[in-house]
Amino acid sequence: MELKFTSFAFLLLFLARIGDAQPTASPEVFDVTKYGATTNGDISKAVLDAFKEACAATSPSTIVIPKGTYQMNQVKLQGPCKAPVELQVQAILKAPSDPKQLNADVEWLTVNYIDRFTLSGGGVFDGQGKQAWDQNNCKDSKSCSNLPNNLSFNFLTNSTIQDITSQDSKLFHINVNGCKNLTFIRVNITAPPESINTDGIHVARSSNVNITDCVIGTGDDCISVGDELEQLHITRVTCGPGHGISVGSLGKTPGEKPVVGVYVKNCTFINTDNGVRVKTWPASHQGVVTDLHYEDIIVQNVSNPIVIDQVYCPYNQCNKDLPSQVKISKVSIKNIRGTSRTQDAVLLLCSKGAPCDGVEVGDIDITYNGKEGPAKSSCENVKPKFVGKQNPPICAGAQSS
Predict the structure, then answer these.
(1) Distance of CA 13 to the CA centre of its chain
(2) Which residues pair with 307 in a beta bridge?
(3) In whole angstroms, what is the distance from residue 194 CA to residue 212 CA?
(4) Cis peptide upstream of residue 254 (ω within 30 degrees of 0)
(5) How far apart are CA 106 and CA 265, in angstroms?
(6) Residues with catalytic annotation?
(7) 3-state secondary structure (DSSP) of residue 341
(8) How far from 4 is each of 9, 10, 14, 18, CA to CA, in Å?
(9) What is this structure's pTM?
(10) CA 170 to chain centre
């Protein structure tokens, strides 16, 4: 009897181990060519039809847009879905070049309310924005942003955007809103310097966002931060051309919520207008920006490598006589080195209405090789604490250690 029991137990253990060794089932694949997509044709309906089935699947699924060049109109992928979904874009996708063919209130590709979404594949989202940039006259028009972004991610959780390229967007390349635990890795963003208002990645109203190993060159901020943001980590990003990595602009709209926790580390800026920057409007509404940390940054021929600008007023469309009411605090700027294109290497221009607190600057080594003289700094309404080297000398008379 004991022998039979032992043999039976051994059999159960053997079967269990066989079960454990079985490979995990591959995701179900939904190829858009099976839904009517053809090269050089509009694949919008095919993408939507494939997504509808993939989103309804109870096991992980992958939507594939295979190699080739396809036209695509505006598409919205709306969750929630029953299981993880991956959109694998291997192709070059082209948006309509004429902005009049698009609804300005809808982005080119929108992804909403999905948990465990992945966008991958090595493909290119070509916004064909040149015609739109010529119409995007921000200097003379307050409504110059009435164009679609290339990619919009809203209310995604535990999701990843990787190995894709956004090219020549009509407005922002990527807009992130209401997301939690979202990672961008090996994303390439490209547009010429004359592409007006084409922020690379704009992040707002989100938490725990990571941007890593990305190369961004565009006509506006490489990365920009809006309000209600918690814990943004930017690591090993190369920026240029562009306007740098910017927190803000903030304070223009009433009721903006705090920005808490922005970490920029091991990044490189090449031929940009700015390096690391915080910008708030004068005559602003109240706001809070705190816990900002910039470390191990290389600047190469950057016009303004380090900037806090609380009188940000593009095109003089504001009242500079009234101070910003956005409070900036707990800022560390450490180990920034390289070359400045102008003498203004460090600008810490804080608000007289809400002076900056808790600013620490250390190991700055930025040179200017122009004929006008060495690099210099300007400081207003701030008393930084210094650690280590200061080149140029910053805020003479501030506390050092």
Answers:
(1) 50
(2) 277, 347
(3) 26
(4) no
(5) 34
(6) 243
(7) coil
(8) 9, 10, 15, 21
(9) 0.92
(10) 16
Residue among 215, 258, 260 nearest 240 (CA): 215
Q: How far apart are CA 154 and CA 37, in angstroms?
A: 26
AA identity, residue 47:
V
Q: Are 159 and 179 in contact (CB under 8 A)?
A: yes
Task: Please give the single-letter amino acid code of residue 318.
Answer: C
At position 193, the amino acid (one-letter code) is P
Residues of the chain by 3-state class (helix, strand, coil), percent to 5: 10, 45, 45
Q: How far, rounded to the nearest angstrom, does the alpha carbon of residue 284 sit from its chain's CA centroid?
A: 24
For each of the chain's 401 residues, which pLDDT tens digit applies? 444 444 544 444 544 454 454 455 688 999 999 999 999 899 999 999 999 999 999 999 999 999 999 999 999 999 999 999 999 999 999 999 999 999 988 999 999 999 999 999 999 999 999 999 987 766 666 556 689 999 999 999 999 999 999 999 999 999 999 999 999 999 999 999 999 999 999 999 999 999 999 999 999 999 999 999 999 999 999 999 999 999 999 999 999 999 999 999 999 999 999 999 999 999 999 999 999 999 999 999 999 999 999 999 988 878 888 999 999 999 999 999 999 999 999 999 999 999 999 999 999 999 998 888 899 999 999 999 999 989 999 987 444 44
Contact 214, 237 (CB under 8 A): yes
Query: What is the longest distance spanned by two Cα atoms in the chain?
Result: 99
Between the two ends of the chain, the Cα-to-Cα distance in Å is: 81
Contacting residues for 350 by C-beta, under 8 A, at least 6 apart:
308, 310, 328, 356, 380, 381, 382
Q: Which two tokens stand for residue 257?
A: 């919520």
- Going from N- to C-terminal start, the domains of the chain cover 28-133+147-391
Within 213-273, strands assigned E span 215-217, 223-225, 229-235, 238-239, 245-250, 259-270
Q: Which CATH class is domain 28-133+147-391?
A: mainly beta
